[in-house]
Structures are given as structure tokens and as C-alpha cells.
Write a structure and sequence with these properties.
Strand content: under 5%
Structural class: mainly alpha
Order of helices and strands: HHEEHH
Radius of gyration: 11 Å
Strand order of the largest sheet: 1-2
Largest sheet: 2 strands, antiparallel
Number of domains: 1
Shape: globular
Distance between the termini: 20 Å
Number of helices: 4
Length: 82
């Protein structure tokens, strides 16, 4: 997988959609929100991108595999969780 460092959140949402065959309905709303965001400093209506990413991670326990591990680690770092 390529380096995600300079990729916008919308690009990461595309990776998630392509890799996660059946995301949970709870995760889908946060994937959709990330698809509208560029950086962790953006806002999605009244929510911050930071909040969107954190809620996605909280609802992404069912997403597994190498891509999932790479993306989740990147998102945790972006959100300052790791």
C-alpha cells in the first residue's frame, strides 16, 4: 500500500470503501463524512474531522486485514491517538 501521509481523508475513504466489502451501517456514515473532508482540521457540518475519524475508528472493529491495519494506524496518528 502506498504512503498515506499526504493523502486527503476523501482518498482514504475511497480506500476503505474499496477494501471493506460489508462495512457496518454505523461505520458507513463516517466513511461518507470522511469522503467530504480533506484534512483532520476540516469540519463536516457541526462535527470536526477529528471527531469523524474517531467515531469511524470506534465503529471499524469489523474491518480486518493488512489494508485495515495500515489505514487505522494512519488515522489514529492523524487524530493524535497513537
Amino acid at each position: 500500500m502506498q504512503d498515506l501521509q499526504d493523502k486527503p481523508l476523501s482518498y482514504i475513504a475511497q480506500i476503505i470503501r474499496a477494501d471493506w466489502a460489508k462495512p457496518s451501517p454505523y461505520a458507513v456514515q463516517y466513511i461518507d463524512a470522511m469522503a467530504q473532508l480533506r484534512s483532520i482540521d476540516d469540519n463536516y457540518y457541526a462535527d470536526t474531522a477529528h471527531g469523524v475519524v474517531c467515531y469511524f475508528l470506534a465503529n471499524a472493529n469489523g474491518w480486518r486485514g493488512d489494508t485495515a491495519r495500515t489505514v487505522k494506524l494512519h488515522l489514529k496518528r492523524l487524530a493524535g491517538l497513537k
